[in-house]
Amino acid sequence: RYAVSCANYILNMYRQRDMLTMMKHAERLVRPGGRFMIADVALPQGNPLYRSFNRIYRKLAMVSFWTLGLVPLHRDYDYASHFGDLGLTIEETRYFRLFPRGPVVFQCLVGRKAP
Question: In degrees to the nearest 10, what's the CA dihedral of 81, 82, 86, 91?
Fold first, then answer.
């Protein structure tokens, strides 16, 4: 088992059922007390303009990648809501913007597995 397992910008490529299977697999690779990290798109947050920008940005990206045959069309995933089911406690969440004062578009979730 590993001290850290990461799923960076890959879980969004799967249908929800398969995404959950991949999360479970990646979590099983983590030793007790270790960390599981996910970096991916963030759910909309902030004021209405920022939330709208986030939705448009994500939908344009998804349709573009779907057109190329790289991802299935699916609803936005709330990865954090699945951490508890996997026996993980969210230790840290970091948000990233496209520009300094722009809307949040990406996130990194860090969960810790119980020792």
Answer: -40
* pLDDT of 58 higher than 90: yes
- Tell me how far apart the alpha carbons of residues 75 and 14 are, in angstroms, rounded to a whole number: 11
Q: What is the Cα gyration radius of the chain? A: 15
E-strand stretches of 1-115: 2-8, 30-41, 88-97, 104-113
Contact indicator for 110, 83 with CB cutoff of 8 Å: no
d(CA 75, CA 40): 14
What distance in Å separates the CA atoms of residue 79 and residue 86, rounded to the nearest whole number? 11
Q: So what's the pLDDT on residue 98? A: 87
